[in-house]
Amino acid sequence: SFGGVGSWTATLVGAYVPGIQPSVYPPGFGIKLPKGARVMLQMHYPKGSAGQTDQTQFRARFSRHPAPRQVFLDAVLNPSNMLDGPLVISPNVVKTFRQRLRIPFDASILSIAPHMHLIGTSTKLWIRTQRGDTIPLLKIPHWDFHWQMIYTFKKLLPVKAGDFVES
């Protein structure tokens, strides 16, 4: 189903959709898992899959580096970042929603992964710097639910605390 993971305290540490390659971070990067952390998987099964066997595997590789640069995953599309919410669409209505995520600390963007299930039709993402510059990140004019990929930049994209990711 298209629901949440069943926890308000869960921290996103990864995402996968059929057809993409596993997430592998550059040397020196990683996601910190606290001691005793439990990993929860959220699965979306298609209609007609009831009674079938799932062979999903979760594999983690622990860093050999003593202090890897920490990777944070954050969802731009969430209620706290909406500029024109709530995310409610009446039948037969086309509606555009805008999001703004303030970057809380100096960072580098490795990749972006748009995810809109069956409701989105298009998406654009950009960085708006504190100086007012606009840096385009992604433009998908015709969203395809079956082609949800993680788009990894060729070079790390540095951003400053106070910049915004906008859609």
**Radius of gyration, rounded?**
17 Å
- Basic shape: globular
**Low-pLDDT residue spans:** none
Number of beta-strand segments: 8
Helical percentage: under 10%
The run of helices and strands is EEEEEEEE
**What does the largest sheet look like?**
4 strands, antiparallel
Structural class, from secondary structure content? mainly beta
Determine the number of helices (DSSP H or I, runs of at least 4 residues).
0
Compute the separation of the termini in Å: 26 Å
DSSP strand content: 15-25%
Strand order of the biggest β-sheet: 3-8-5-6
Overall average pLDDT: 83
Explain how this protein is built.
Helix content is 0%, strand content 23%. With 167 residues, it is mostly beta strands. Strands 3-8-5-6 form a four-stranded antiparallel beta sheet, with no helix packed on it. It is globular, with a radius of gyration of 17 Å. The two termini are 26 Å apart.
